[in-house]
Design a protein that fits this description.
The protein contains five helices and 14 strands. By secondary structure, it is of the alpha+beta class. The structure holds one DNA strand. Belongs to the DNA repair enzymes AP/ExoA family. Its cofactor is Mg(2+).
Length: 261
DNA sequence: ATGCCCTATGATATAGGA
């Protein structure tokens, strides 16, 4: 089974890219983030014509997550239990479903903006509630493979950004953020790390500005944390860097994980 | 070649992204 996660940066604006990518890569399950449209506006008919069911959770201009599957889509849950609000709103940043016997979550972790911004505390709180969710789900998952995939907006190590010296005042690399990943691992999850490219880290994001992609000024911030029953089935994991090339692409590339039987 | 920001919105600017 082939499972992917991709911050698509507007599912409506990216529809043709998405459909072509589904045909080329043939994933069984796709976790999408940053739909940037309301649930009703997600182009589920076009996605269905490509062979995929869709469970979406969006609310318009920002955020929005979905799970696409061609191997069944059951027990859909929207939002984390006790998911924190930002400015009075529980934002659409999490959706879970069971697809082909595997439980997956598609997550869009808050950005944080600046370390001193209230959004940063929101990010840490959100990740703490993710940890709580994972702790209770791992405890009852048994042999069912379970994974939390998505845009974590955290680079796990200094090597996961193109130049750590550029991040001295930035989010995504702070000890507080990285501690939330450690906490997530401590409930019984391991990170499924995509294999490196021949010449570099498998980054998953490159800014649109300042030739970041051609210069490979990237960040590895789209991550997958998995239980042992999931991780032991992983036969390969890679970043589909080709999806970032050319005009009109998302600024993120998909992470693709191959599960054996 | 991988190429000089992008998206959605009460839009002719603005917020957010990371």
């Amino acid at each position: 089974m082939r499972i992917a996660t991709w911050n698509i940066n507007s599912v409506t604006s990216r529809l043709e890219h998405l459909l072509a990518w589904l045909e080329r890569v043939e994933p069984d399950v796709v976790c999408l983030q940053e739909l940037k449209c309301a649930t009703d506006a997600v182009p589920i008919e076009s996605i269905a014509a490509a062979g995929y069911e869709t469970a979406a959770h969006g609310n318009g201009r920002w955020n929005g997550v979905a799970i696409l599957s061609r191997v069944g889509l059951a027990d859909v849950v929207r939002d984390l239990p006790a998911q924190p609000e930002f400015e009075g709103v529980i934002e659409p940043r999490a959706i879970g479903a069971t697809c082909g016997g595997v439980r997956v979550w598609s997550l869009y972790v808050p950005n944080g903006r600046e370390p001193s911004h209230p959004h940063f505390q929101y990010k840490l709180e959100w990740l703490a509630r993710l940890r709580d969710t994972a702790a209770s789900e791992v405890a009852v998952a048994g042999d069912v493979p379970l994974a939390y995939l998505g845009d974590y907006n955290i680079a796990p190590t200094d090597a996961d950004v193109w130049d750590i010296s550029e991040f001295s005042e930035s989010t995504h690399v702070t000890p507080e953020e990285r501690a939330t990943l450690t906490a997530l691992a401590q409930v019984g999850l391991v990170e499924v790390v995509p294999r490196p490219l021949k010449y570099d880290i498998a980054y998953t994001f490159w800014d649109y500005r300042q030739l970041a992609f051609p210069k490979n000024r990237g960040m590895r911030i789209d991550l997958a944390y998995a239980t042992k029953p999931f991780a032991t089935r992983v036969t390969d994991a890679w970043v589909d860097r080709d999806a970032r090339k050319g005009k009109g692409t998302s600024d993120h590339a998909p992470v693709v994980i191959e599960l054996g039987p």
